[in-house]
Amino acid sequence: MAKLISGNLPNIPWQPRPRDCSDVIWRHDANPIIPRNATPTSNSVFNSAVVPYKDGFAGVFRCDDKVRQMHLHAGFSRDGLKFDIEPERIQFIHDNPDAGEYEEAYDPRACWIEDRYYVTWCNLYHGPTIGVAHTQNFKTFHQLENAFLPHNRNGVLFPRKINGNYAMLSRPSDTGHTAFGDIFYSESPDLCFWGKHRFVMAPTVGWQSTKIGPGPTPIETSEGWLVFYHGVLTSCNGFVYHYGAALLDLDKPWKVIYRTKPYLMSPQRDYECVGDVPNVVFPCAALHDAATGRIAIYYGCADTVTSVAYTEFGELLDFIKSNSIA
Ligand code: BMA
Q1: 131 lines ligand 1 (CB under 6 A)
Q2: Ligand 1 in contact with 47 (CB < 6 A)?
Q3: Which one of 232, 239, 243 would you pick to mutate in the ligand 1 pocket, going by the greatest count of ligand atoms within 8 A of its CB?
Q4: pLDDT in tens, 36-60
């Protein structure tokens, strides 16, 4: 039977599927879990990363301030639902000062690789590119070289080396609110020099017809890497952000085994449809418990607040396989 490879998390946030819901993914009943004013200076808190930390959880949060600049703040939680977010933004330590120019930062992802946590984010450095940092305690963060030249968004590290190298998904783009975008895969021996770039997948029909981008850290399963990804449709009123899932080959993650034709989630609740940017669900983190197959997905809503949704791996895999366009 297909299963999640590792990572038992008995304290994963969880609610069973509501009786009146037949979808493969369902929302936490007290969404949004993080309000827009979670820090004294925040205009909005969304598109954020959460990981297991000690006997609870830690995270890196996108907090847009009241100047309307985008910054990263660390935060902690006992239950993965109620977070204390630091009022001050993360001040990165730059081991090489030339590498560390930082104008604004957004859409963080976080994961544990070998002996420390890594954070990647969209770093404004003469245009958006992928910032990389590591931390042991979510208090002190060491910023490394940007992974790519501008313009690139949605840099998402795999949680272990592949083919002996660190591995990352990303989405090359342009300076603005890019109206196109394919997902690519890259490897690095040292998290500094990135190469072996491989095409993974492009937009296709419907909800994923304009652009796509990788979301949370990929989850290793016996059948491949489970990747949640966002997909954008251009409506007469602008972009609509959804998300779906794909399964990528374990050793050659640029090979797509399955990919959902229908979305897993579209913006439907008020807090997903109304906010600073309407009609956006944007996942940046997913916790999983290998023992039960439970998965909790953290996603930004309408570029304003943060929510959680749940799914169960066995059912999700069946859904992906029976609704695949790959
Ligand atoms: C994308 C990113 C995300 C944002 C989304 C919708 O291009 O900027 O941070 O959630 O647009 O505005």
Answers
A1: no
A2: yes
A3: 239
A4: 999 999 999 999 999 999 999 999 9
pLDDT of residue 265 exceeding 90, the answer is: yes
Per-residue model confidence (pLDDT) at position 95: 81
Nearest CA, atom 1, ligand 1: 177
pLDDT tens for residues 108-166? 999 999 999 999 999 999 999 999 999 999 999 999 999 999 999 999 999 999 999 99
Mutational pocket test of ligand 1: of 36, 47, 104, the residue with most ligand atoms within 8 Å of the beta carbon:
47
Distance of CA 108 from the midpoint of ligand 1 (Å): 12
User: Where along the chain do its domains lie?
Assistant: 26-322
- Mean residue pLDDT of the chain comes to 97
Torsion angle of the four alpha carbons 306, 4, 170, 65, in this order, in degrees rounded to the nearest 10 = 20
3-state secondary structure of 194: coil
Of the two residues 79 and 177, the one the predictor is more confident about is: 79
52 lines ligand 1 (CB under 6 A): no
Residue 100 has pLDDT above 80, yes or no: no
For residues 293-310, one letter each, b for 16 or more C-beta atoms within 10 angstroms of the residue's C-beta and e for the rest, the string is bbbbbbbbbbbbbbbbbb
Q: Taking the CB of residue 257, how many other CB atoms lie within 10 A of it?
A: 16
- Assigned superfamily of 26-322: Glycosyl hydrolase domain; family 43 (2.115.10.20)
Distance 247 CA to ligand 1 centre (A): 24
- Burial of residue 218 (CB within 10 Å: 0-12, 13-18, 19+) is buried
Tell me the whole-structure pTM to 2 decimals: 0.98
* Ligand 1 midpoint to CA 10 (Å): 32
pLDDT at 102 over 80: no
List the Cα angle 148/153/157 in 5-degree steps. 70
Ligand 1 atom at shortest distance from the alpha carbon of 277: 12
